[in-house]
């Protein structure tokens, strides 16, 4: 489904009798960096950079959407992915700036993982709705969103978000799952019981493998680019027990697949997509509502104060070593802002490598 145009959003605001319709990305933008929010949503300065992670994430999402909407067949996904990676290589986007060797290593791993996913994706064998538009009201604020994928098995509804990022730690699932928790409210508003809703990510860079080893069930999530190497300690023992030359695993590691193994061993290791569930409970939902409402109140307060004072400094965000990676590689302004400039000056790092940063600041009238 195509995203709503500005004119369509304006009409929707009138229908809902509201001055703003929020998106989760807008609120999280404020949470990540108040100054970036200011540039984008208050000053309406277009972002200069699209980071490679969001670019590829959106592109791979589109491939899956085409497949589940029957616009391309399974084999064509690989062709689409190859074209995406070719186009990416022609661009100036990188995984990490100013570190060529590290960037190349990250790129090769990332490319191998995603190519493996689209060559081995296990399709959902049910009707799948993609880009389902939803409206959710929290107190007197409206949110619009688009669910990557939703399908139903018996009476259970599965909301799935495709992720091309690194997997989250168990302790961070609720934090990073806020968007899907928000989307679950749409189903709840439609009368679907909480216990009949499953929220999950499909981490495309990873695969899930299940097998039995010496009577114990094992389950692991491995990055796709070297999963056979990660499994090799188990497979070597299997080969030894079967009196098969253990060196057979070397070819498997090199090819990163199990096709050289005896069929019995191939069948032993059940390989599938890497799905991670997000905790969902009424307490978690209420906490999210409180959190989002608090953020929106902070935004309203800051916007109102800015309207009265026109003090840009109200939006300033302190950049630290811990957050500088986001500024440099993930922010749509690519670290080209007063906050990042101050950070760089404090570290006395304004060298020739950062002339472009200064020039862009001048273009925006920020220095």
What do you see in this structure?
With 367 residues, the chain is of the alpha/beta class. Among the domains are: 20-120, no CATH class; 128-204 and 276-293, no CATH class. 50% of the residues lie in helices and 18% in strands. The chain has 15 helices and seven strands. Strands 1, 2, 3, 4, 5, 6 and 7 form a seven-stranded mixed sheet that branches. Strand 2 (128-138) and strand 3 form a beta hairpin. Helix 2 (24-32) crosses helix 3 (34-42). The longest helix is centred in the C-terminal third of the chain and has 28 residues, at 282-309. The chain is globular and about 80 Å long. It starts with 5 loop residues before the first helix and ends with a helix. The mean pLDDT is 91.
Report the total helices. 15
How many strands in all? 7
Secondary-structure class:
alpha/beta
Q: Can you give the helix content as a percent range?
A: 40-55%
> For the residues shown, what is the average pLDDT?
91
The coarse overall form would be globular
Order of helices and strands: HEHHHHHEEEHHEEHHHEHHHH
Radius of gyration: 24 Å
The N- to C-terminal Cα distance equals 41 Å
Give the low-pLDDT segments: none
Largest sheet: 7 strands, mixed
The amount of beta strand, in percent, is: 15-25%
């Amino acid at each position: 489904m195509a995203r709503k145009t500005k004119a369509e959003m304006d009409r929707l605001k009138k229908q809902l009798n509201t001055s703003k319709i929020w998106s989760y990305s807008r609120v999280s933008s404020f949470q990540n960096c108040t100054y970036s929010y200011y540039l984008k949503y208050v000053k309406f300065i277009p972002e200069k950079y699209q980071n490679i992670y969001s670019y590829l994430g959106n592109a791979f999402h589109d491939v899956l959407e085409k497949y589940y909407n029957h616009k391309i067949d399974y084999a064509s996904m690989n062709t689409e992915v190859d074209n995406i990676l070719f186009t990416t290589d022609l661009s100036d986007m990188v995984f990490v700036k100013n570190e060529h060797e590290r960037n190349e290593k990250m790129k090769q791993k990332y490319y191998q993982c995603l190519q493996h996913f689209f060559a081995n994706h296990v399709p959902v064998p049910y009707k799948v709705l993609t880009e389902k538009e939803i409206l959710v009201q929290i107190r007197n604020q409206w949110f619009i969103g688009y669910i990557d994928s939703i399908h139903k098995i018996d009476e259970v509804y599965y909301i799935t978000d495709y992720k091309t990022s690194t997997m989250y730690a168990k302790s961070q699932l609720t934090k990073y799952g806020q968007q899907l928790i928000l989307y679950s409210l749409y189903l709840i508003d439609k009368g679907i019981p909480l216990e009949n809703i499953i929220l999950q990510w499909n981490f495309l860079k990873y695969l899930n493998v299940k097998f039995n080893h010496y009577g114990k069930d094992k389950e692991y999530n491995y990055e796709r680019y070297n999963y056979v190497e990660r499994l090799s300690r188990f497979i070597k023992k299997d080969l030894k027990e079967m009196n098969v030359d253990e060196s057979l695993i070397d070819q498997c590691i090199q090819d990163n697949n199990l096709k050289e193994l005896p069929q019995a061993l191939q069948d032993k290791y059940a390989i599938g997509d890497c799905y991670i569930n997000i905790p969902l409970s009424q307490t978690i939902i209420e906490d999210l509502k409180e959190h989002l409402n608090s953020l929106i109140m902070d935004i309203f307060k800051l916007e109102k104060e800015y309207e009265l004072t026109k003090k840009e400094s109200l939006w300033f965000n302190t950049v630290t070593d811990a957050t500088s990676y986001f500024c440099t590689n993930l922010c749509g302004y690519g670290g080209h802002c007063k906050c990042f400039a101050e950070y760089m000056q404090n570290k006395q790092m304004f060298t020739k490598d950062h002339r472009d940063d200064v020039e862009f600041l001048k273009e925006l009238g920020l220095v």
